[in-house]
Write a structure and sequence with these properties.
CATH topology of the largest domain: Rossmann fold
Structural class: alpha/beta
Number of strands: 11
Radius of gyration: 20 Å
Number of domains: 2
Strand order of the largest sheet: 1-2-9-6-5-3-4
Order of helices and strands: EEEEHEHEHEEEHHHHHHHEEH
Oligomer: single chain
Strand content: 15-25%
Shape: globular
């Protein structure tokens, strides 16, 4: 078992990682908690035992179609029925969608109730459960409504990965792939558990330096602008990590079009995405360029006029705003071919 700390002053918390550690979840709960609202989904292989606490479990639907304000309303009305107070605790047990929803519901209830996350997917462990970003979707875009609400603890039990369906494992690998380009670490030399731990460390370091995404934290969105547009344009037939994998290659193509990186660096992106993780590097056929452009203009990361992307370049990964549409379209047309 290892403990990694996310240092945020009086809101710092530990991420506990290891195998067979879910039984120690109680150690991460607030001492004053008497009631526990567990938010999960059908089929999540997690048995949570919390002796002496009044536990109510809420099972939410699967899929991005359930990541809505309606789901939040259903949950918080359930909190009211169970008498949950701001001294109690919400626990999100599941993948990234569950921890996003659980975190947002906790942030809203009584203007802020403690939340602990137990991510059971690879994507949840390396990304969604860490850092306090919560949110739900609107028809107009992904994660447009949300809040920053840090958990009081995160527990990552690698035993959950042993039974994770292949597609969900690959989805997490798409999110993991971006970490290959954020630091100089050679993640390829690490086994999966070491790689997960290093990804968590990288994210914790970035979150600690920029909790509310005013600067460096935006780098964690590498590949995400195009990815979010793809998710919506495909009706979420592409899972998030699958879309991020394609988005990483797109960001490299766009960076090349803008003269920021050379063709060898673009190929390196393809090698990591397709070679190391065996993920798609091109979008599905039949997508409309104009629709994708409109979706990217509505992305929550847009800054002022023009489009905003996180792009590779001579100084590494950085935020680039005010990108003209012509190279964006050209890179997209290359990808769609």
């Amino acid at each position: 078992m290892r403990r990694l700390n996310v240092p945020l002053g009086n809101r710092s918390y530990d991420v506990v990682i290891g195998r067979g550690i879910v039984a120690g979840l109680v150690s991460l709960l607030p001492a004053a908690a008497q009631r526990v609202a567990i938010i999960t989904q059908d089929g999540i292989p997690a048995e949570i035992v919390l002796p002496g606490l009044d536990v109510t479990t809420f099972v939410i639907d699967r899929g991005e179609g359930a990541k809505t304000l309606h789901t939040i309303e259903t949950l918080v009305r359930g909190f009211a029925d169970m008498g949950l107070t701001r001294n109690d605790v919400v626990i999100g047990v599941g993948g990234g969608m569950v921890t996003d929803v659980a975190g947002f519901a906790a942030s809203s209830w009584h203007r802020g109730t403690p939340v602990v996350h137990v991510p059971t997917s690879l994507l949840g462990m390396v990304d969604a459960a860490i850092g306090g970003k919560t949110g739900v979707n609107l028809p107009e875009g992904k994660n447009l409504v949300g809040a920053y609400w840090q958990p009081t603890g995160v527990l990552c039990d690698f035993d959950f990965l042993d039974t994770l369906p292949l597609r969900e494992m690959r989805c997490g690998m798409g999110e993991m792939a971006k970490y290959h380009f954020l630091t100089g670490d050679n993640l390829l030399e690490m086994d999966l558990e070491e790689r997960v731990a290093r990804c968590i460390e990288i994210k914790a370091e970035i979150v600690a330096s920029d909790e509310r995404e005013s600067g460096q934290r935006a780098l964690l969105n590498y590949g995400h602008t195009f990815a979010h547009a793809l998710e919506i344009a495909t009706g979420h037939e592409l899972a998030h990590g699958e879309a991020v994998a394609i988005g990483l290659v797109y960001a490299a193509e766009l960076g090349h079009n803008l003269g920021r990186i050379d063709v060898d660096r673009v190929q390196e992106h393809r090698n990591v995405v397709a070679g190391e993780y065996d993920l798609m590097t091109s979008p599905p056929s039949g997508l409309d360029v104009d629709e994708l452009m409109a979706l990217m203009h509505r992305d929550k990361k847009a800054l002022g006029s023009g489009l905003t992307f996180v792009l590779d370049g001579p100084s590494g990964i950085e935020v680039v705003s005010g990108v003209d549409e012509e190279p964006v379209r050209r890179a997209m047309e290359t990808m769609l071919r």
